[in-house]
Specification:
Order of helices and strands: HHH
Low-confidence stretches: none
Radius of gyration: 33 Å
Structural class: mainly alpha
Shape: rod-shaped
Distance between the termini: 98 Å
Number of strands: 0
Oligomer: single chain
């Protein structure tokens, strides 16, 4: 085990040259790998955008079904006219 550790230490102290393409590619791989790991290990979110956005004004109680009113009846009630 010590022999392998010494071999690894020798390879880490060696100086190597890298082209600009290799450097940019390694940066991109690290960046994209970080994004993937962040997605995989992030906590599950419960927020939903654009869902359950119907015509509910929020005035009804849960489980209570509102009756649909006729448009003419709504206009009469709002304008206070009796026809």
């Amino acid at each position: 085990m010590k022999e392998k550790w010494n071999e690894l230490k020798v390879t880490l102290t060696e100086t190597t040259q890298m082209s600009k393409k290799e450097f940019v590619l390694s940066l991109m791989v690290c960046f994209l790998g970080g994004i993937v790991l962040g997605i995989l290990f992030s906590p599950k979110k419960t927020s939903v955008i654009g869902s359950h956005n119907g015509n509910n004004c929020g005035n009804s109680r849960p489980g209570e079904v509102d009756e649909l009113a006729d448009w003419d009846e709504i206009e009469k009630n709002e304008l206070g006219k009796d026809e």
